[in-house]
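Structure ticket #2291
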Amino acid sequence: MIILQLILFCALFTLMVKIAVGNNALNGLYFYPKMVQERAFALGLTERETVARRRKRFMIPFFLVMLAALVLIIGLWNELKTFRPAYLQALLFLEVMNWYDGIIIDKVWVGYSKFWLLPGCEDIPYVQTWKQVLKKRGILTLIWVAGAAIVAGVIVLVF
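Resolution: structure written out below.
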């Protein structure tokens, strides 16, 4: 059951990203490295204010939906009501999401899909190297140790 839940959680992650960008990768320019963003601004593809507004409009609901989904899966579906089991399960979900984002989203989807290529920015690397992925995901692994405690605390309070 936990594997199904992890798949559904990662599918929700992917669906939210796809909905945010729609059929235009420029809608997700805030996901790109700064160098790509700067080129897109210089080419007049979009404006800084538009990207900042889209980022805020995505990130706030994204974090709230992913948190709510995690709390409902662990607290309601799995019926974990005490801190330690809720913490361990939250940590598992957050770490799987972390590495899913780095490997499947960043390296596979972005790296192999023509969708993410921006006109006029083809010569700039926009896919993270393996070294960058490992470094970023390693740092986030440590951050999610604390994040899982917050999720578990919410679960204990709500359920």
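Closing remark: Helices lie at 2-21, 34-42, 48-77, 83-112, 130-158.
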